[in-house]
Predict the structure.
Amino acid sequence: MVKRTGGRIFVISGPSGGGKTTVVEALLAHAPGLVRSVSVTTRPRRSSERDGADYRFVSGGAFARLRARGELLEWAQVHHAWYGTPRQPVERALARGRDVILSIDVQGARQVKRRFGARAVLVFLVPPSLRALAQRLRKRRTETPQALQTRLRAAKRELACAAWYDYTVVNRRVPEAVEQLEAIVTAERLRTGRR
Ligand code: 5GP
């Protein structure tokens, strides 16, 4: 019998507009036993988003209190808003042997790696090119032109971080990217633990 000793944390990072949300949703539909962490954020809700499902939208004060009480596993300021991963749901899922998926930025990924070591698997989702990324962001129409420029500048900085991730997946087509993510999840689940 194979004995399981708690779950793993799959961290997915990549520039805003790189298709992370779509790919992660599709992965969750395909890969059983994966739990998605719902982050808290101080950024305003987009009309397509549901509070409690996509994010938990909180005030700056509420975010600071969560942080001070040690209720966040990691946190970071991204594009002038705060984002963090609630600690309890992640720890509970891991204790039950479930694998958790976090869709977070590079600063958060670093904190998770430091805290969880080999239990954390870092995957960087890159757009095929910066041009493709700019097109996707424009098509999404959720950002003002100024916010779009901020996100593109951040994307360039983020792409430089891909080197210290465990895996890189190029998001040319969603089904292909999802298939590659599933392969990573499967491979990591088959690991013997020797690292
Ligand atoms: P967006 O505002 O486009 O939903 O997300 C902006 C960035 O914040 C993305 O790179 C996203 O992955 C990141 N992000 C979302 N939730 C968290 C979180 O809980 N922690 C950290 N560190 N980053 C997050």
User: Anything to note?
Assistant: The helical segments are 20-30, 60-68, 87-95, 106-116, 130-140, 145-159, 174-190. The CA atoms of residues 25 and 139 lie 19 Å apart. The pocket of guanosine-5'-monophosphate is lined by residues 16, 39, 43, 74, 76, 78, 83-85, 103-105, 107-108 (CB under 6 Å).
